[in-house]
């Protein structure tokens, strides 16, 4: 049989690797890296080569599913949407619209149509609350970027391809491939930094695979990075190492940071962080002395007790040392196709404020429009006016990924209506009334959107669908669901007309007359939107105004992608704060420093502290159904230092019980000196032992869900982000 070759970008993570997909008939025969991809140049990880397994996975849903008592039946799309209308409208009539909410999960950021249409869904559905994986992920960084630069999604990333010094805090690209830092082959970049005489330091409670590739590993007590970074600022001021460089004229609040940092000399924080004061002093001097340096923090700095302070201080150190908005420092991406998230958000037209409303049950004030994900369970389970009765999940598995996962799992059956837009019948969607499956990665086009906002280069690559589907794409599903939530009936909803309205609004935001460009298209949906994103982006043709500029057609013609060069200084163009300057010391954030000071008084935990980890062969909770990724030794183990293991009498390869105030799990122990004493680690994304799922491979390797241990009440106060790192636990032999 002849083999067709298709080139496409892997949509699974922020590395955006170029793949060569070899197809025989309707089967994927082989996937290997595309060595000529302008961005990834042949880099790939084991997950990327399994897109064919995902596509052919017999467990993957291809037909809508409707619950019939305890049974499921396959349904037509018309039947499924009719059932959605019936259920949603019944809840809205009986309990009002405030009884309906949605949960938006991580793959939304990676999916061609979900990423571009989730904004339409949110605007049109006009739900009063929504939950997302954001508050178990990067919400602290969203808060700090919103207040410092004026847009929550312009997140500056380390320019690791040009830096001479990289300080990695709470990130493990060896597993994750980099996050809020889009660059292929991050470990290769670490080697290259070192080859050109630079230095890489990893601050992490665990000696990770990334730390092994770096020059130095600095173990730190979970949740104490903000104290360490404030002490770094202290040293920068004390030793006259502050030099803002190019951004000197556009920064407010340097004196405020100086004043605040005075209170945090390294000697004051050293015991709490368990990092020697001289190490902190040396790090500050190394950052300041290097020709260029980039401090970077990721999930370990967000999902922790002082996530906002830590995320903010990462940027502060870069700014104070002149490593901001210049090559080799922290820089903003310059996407070829502007991301939907970079558009001005009408809710902030009058400026940003917090706590505009509070959650009903625990009274959590909203932050950037969301309350903690852990509120969802109690809002469903607690009777009274305003109780949630209907939930729409979009590409999310919160029964695994949300703190206090056991409570959410127990609460979901109380709903009168649950609709899931998802490709699997899994731990979460087993509670749904209707499941509306999306397309596989190979059934839809691809061109990254959000992620390019922090990409190391202005590169782009368009992937047409390999197996054109015979069913709706997710943008159509979302648009129809949003129409139903807006009170329309299926008969009233004209998905195409709604999309035309959306497209026209986007054109107007870009200063393009929709009537003039309408003729350029004979199709609707995200592909049309992508062409607009490219043509009105920084390199675009603006529909003929710049005849040499780019259009989507250029990417169709160049299947290995187009690279328009490295990051460039952009802060002056992007700044959107009321003052027009970088706000180095936003009051909202610095008001949290007293809480950090209290932490310094608290002393060491008598209990062990549990942190999470990732593995290169897992992807959050949903790729454990790919058999080729599951071979090899058990990865869902409790990592524990030999001294702790000996003290507690737990043994390698034997079971231990891990107990927190939220719950307990029994898990296999792995004794290793890669953990610092006093800290234990479990991977996140496991716990596939629930009945009623359709995950034939994953259920053979269930593992345990570490979010059964994460108490939902624990949040980083200014951001509402979950604390899933640094959870006090007891460990005992079973
Ligand atoms: N303890 C602990 N908890 C954590 C974390 C941690 O480190 N530790 N990390 C947190 C982080 S950073 C994140 S992002 C969240 C993730 O939390 P979630 O987003 O809730 O979880 P995922 O495991 O990514 O689940 C993705 C879901 O989308 C479905 N899916 C996959 N691809 C598609 C698609 O293309 N279309 C549709 N419609 N569905 C699709 C899958 O079947 C699955 O149900 O977990 C968070 N929770
Ligand atoms: N293979 C794979 N890739 C992924 C994912 C996946 O599940 N699998 N998930 C994707 C998603 S949704 C995300 S958000 C990114 C996350 O990307 P990363 O942030 O790189 O994620 P992790 O690999 O979990 O690394 C987090 C590190 O933080 C450390 N840590 C924990 N607590 C603390 C602390 O208090 N302080 C410090 N300094 N360090 C701490 C942990 O030991 C761990 O090494 O990865 C993405 N990429
Ligand atoms: S690193 Fe792996 S999962 Fe991420 S884009 Fe590349 S191949 Fe895909
Ligand atoms: Mo994430």
Could you give a short description of this structure?
The chain is of the alpha/beta class. The structure holds ligand MGD (2 copies), iron/sulfur cluster and molybdenum atom (MO).
Shape: globular
Specify the structural class: alpha/beta
Q: Strand fraction band? A: 15-25%
Task: Look up the CATH topology of the largest domain.
Answer: Rossmann fold
| Alpha carbon gyration radius | 25 Å
The largest β sheet comes out as: 7 strands, mixed
CATH-defined architecture of the largest domain = 3-Layer(aba) Sandwich
Give the total of domains.
4
**DSSP helical segment count:** 26
Topology:
Layout lengths: L3 E6 L8 E7 L2 E7 L17 H6 L8 E4 L2 E4 L2 H19 L4 E5 L7 H14 L5 E2 L6 H11 L7 E2 L6 E5 L3 H4 L9 H10 L3 E5 L5 H5 L2 E3 L6 H14 L12 E2 L1 H9 L3 H8 L3 H13 L4 E4 L1 H4 L4 H14 L9 E2 L43 H7 L8 E5 L3 H4 L3 H7 L5 E5 L12 E3 L20 E4 L13 H12 L9 H15 L4 H4 L8 H10 L16 H6 L4 E5 L4 H4 L7 E2 L3 H4 L2 H10 L5 E6 L13 H4 L6 E4 L1 H7 L6 E5 L4 E8 L7 E5 L31 E2 L4 E2 L4 E7 L1
Parallel strand pairs: 6-7, 6-15, 9-10, 9-13, 10-11, 12-20, 15-16, 16-17, 21-25, 22-24
Antiparallel strand pairs: 1-2, 2-3, 4-5, 4-17, 8-14, 18-19, 21-28, 23-24, 23-28, 26-27
Helix pairs in contact: 2-17, 3-17, 4-13, 8-9, 8-10, 8-11, 8-13, 10-11, 14-16
């Amino acid at each position: 049989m002849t083999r067709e070759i298709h080139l496409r970008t892997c949509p699974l993570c922020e590395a955006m690797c170029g793949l060569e997909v070899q197809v025989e008939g309707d089967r994927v025969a082989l996937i290997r890296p595309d060595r000529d991809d302008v961005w990834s140049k042949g880099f790939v990880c084991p997950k990327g080569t399994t897109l064919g397994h995902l596509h052919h996975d017999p467990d993957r849903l291809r037909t809508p599913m409707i619950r019939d008592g305890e049974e499921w039946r396959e349904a037509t799309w018309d039947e499924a949407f009719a059932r959605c209308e019936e259920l949603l409208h019944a809840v809205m009539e009986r309990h009002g619209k405030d009884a309906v909410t949605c949960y938006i999960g991580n793959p939304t950021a990676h999916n061609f149509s979900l990423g571009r249409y989730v904004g339409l869904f949110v605007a049109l559905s006009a739900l009063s609350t929504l939950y997302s994986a954001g508050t178990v992920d990067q919400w602290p960084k969203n808060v700090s970027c919103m207040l410092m630069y004026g847009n929550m999604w312009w997140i500056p990333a380390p320019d690791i391809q040009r830096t001479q010094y990289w300080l990695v805090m709470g990130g493990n690209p060896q597993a994750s491939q980099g996050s809020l830092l889009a660059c292929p082959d991050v470990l290769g970049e670490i080697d290259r930094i070192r080859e050109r005489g630079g230095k890489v330091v990893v601050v992490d409670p665990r000696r990770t695979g990334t730390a092994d590739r770096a020059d130095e590993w600095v173990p730190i007590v979970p949740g104490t990075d903000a104290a360490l970074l404030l002490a770094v600022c202290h040293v920068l001021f004390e030793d006259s190492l502050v030099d803002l460089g190019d951004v000197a004229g556009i920064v407010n609040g340097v004196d405020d940071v100086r004043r605040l940092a005075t209170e945090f000399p390294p000697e004051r924080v050293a015991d709490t962080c368990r990092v020697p004061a001289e190490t902190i002093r040396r790090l500050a001097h190394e950052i300041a002395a290097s020709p260029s340096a980039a401090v970077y923090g990721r999930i370990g700095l967000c999902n922790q007790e002082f996530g906002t302070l830590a995320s903010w201080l990462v940027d502060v150190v870069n700014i104070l040392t002149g490593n901001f908005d210049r090559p080799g420092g922290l820089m903003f991406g310059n996407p070829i196709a502007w991301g939907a998230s970079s558009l001005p958000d009408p809710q902030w037209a009058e400026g940003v404020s917090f706590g505009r409303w509070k959650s009903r049950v625990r009274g959590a004030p909203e932050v950037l429009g969301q309350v903690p994900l852990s509120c969802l369970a109690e809002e469903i389970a607690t009777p009274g006016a305003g109780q949630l009765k209907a939930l729409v999940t979009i590409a999310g598995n919160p029964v695994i990924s949300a703190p206090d996962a056991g409570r959410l799992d127990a609460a979901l059956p109380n709903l009168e209506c649950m609709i899931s837009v998802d490709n699997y019948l899994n731990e979460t969607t087993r509670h749904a009334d209707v499941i509306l499956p999306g397309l596989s990665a190979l059934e839809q086009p691809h061109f990254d959107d959000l992620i390019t906002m922090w990409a190391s280069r202005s590169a782009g690559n368009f992937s047409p669908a390999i197996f054109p589907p015979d069913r709706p794409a997710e943008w159509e599903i979302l648009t129809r669901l949003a129409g139903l939530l807006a009170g329309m009936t299926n008969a009233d909803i004209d998905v195409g007309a709604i999309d035309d309205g959306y497209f026209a609004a986007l054109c107007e935001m870009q200063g393009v007359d929709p009537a003039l460009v309408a003729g350029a298209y004979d199709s609707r949906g995200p592909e049309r939107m992508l062409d607009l994103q490219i043509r009105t982006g920084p390199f675009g043709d603006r529909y003929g105004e710049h005849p040499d500029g780019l259009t989507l057609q250029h990417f169709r013609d160049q299947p290995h992608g187009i690279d328009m060069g490295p990051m460039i200084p952009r802060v002056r163009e992007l700044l959107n704060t009321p003052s027009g300057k970088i706000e180095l010391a936003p009051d909202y954030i610095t008001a949290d420093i007293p809480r950090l000071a209290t932490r310094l008084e608290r002393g060491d935990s008598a209990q062990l502290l549990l942190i999470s980890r990732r593995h290169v062969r897992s992807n959050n909770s949903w790729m454990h159904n790919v058999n080729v990724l599951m071979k090899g030794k058990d990865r869902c183990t409790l990592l524990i230092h030999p001294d702790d293991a000996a003290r507690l009498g737990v043994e390698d390869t034997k079971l231990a019980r891990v107990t927190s105030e939220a719950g307990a799990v029994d898990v296999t122990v792995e004794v290793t000196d890669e953990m610092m004493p006093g800290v234990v680690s479990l991977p996140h994304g496991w716990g596939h032992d629930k009945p009623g799922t359709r995950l034939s491979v994953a259920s053979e390797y269930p593992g345990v869900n570490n979010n059964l241990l994460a108490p939902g009440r624990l949040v980083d106060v200014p951001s509402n982000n979950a604390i899933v790192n640094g959870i006090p636990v007891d460990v005992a032999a079973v």
